[in-house]
Amino acid sequence: MIVDEAKKELSLQERDGAIEEIAARLGARAERGRRFAELTSLRVGGAIDWVISPVTEEQAAAVVYELDRAGIAWRALGSGSNVLADDAAHHYVVVSLKELKGEAHFDGERVSVSAGYSLPRLCIDAGRRGLAGIEGLGGIPGTVGGALWMNAGAYGHEIGNVTESVRVAREGRVVEVPGSEVKWDYRHTSFREGELLLGATLHLRPDDPEKIGARMLEAKNKRLATQPHGARSAGCFFKNPPGSSVGTGKMIDEMGMKGERRGGALVSPIHANFIVTEGEDAKAADALALAEEIRERIRREKGIELEYEVELWRAEAPKESPESGAESPESKTSEESESSKESEESSGLQTPDSRLQTPKEEKR
Ligand code: EPU
Question: Which residue owns the Cα nearest ligand 1 atom 25?
Answer without folding.
Answer: 154
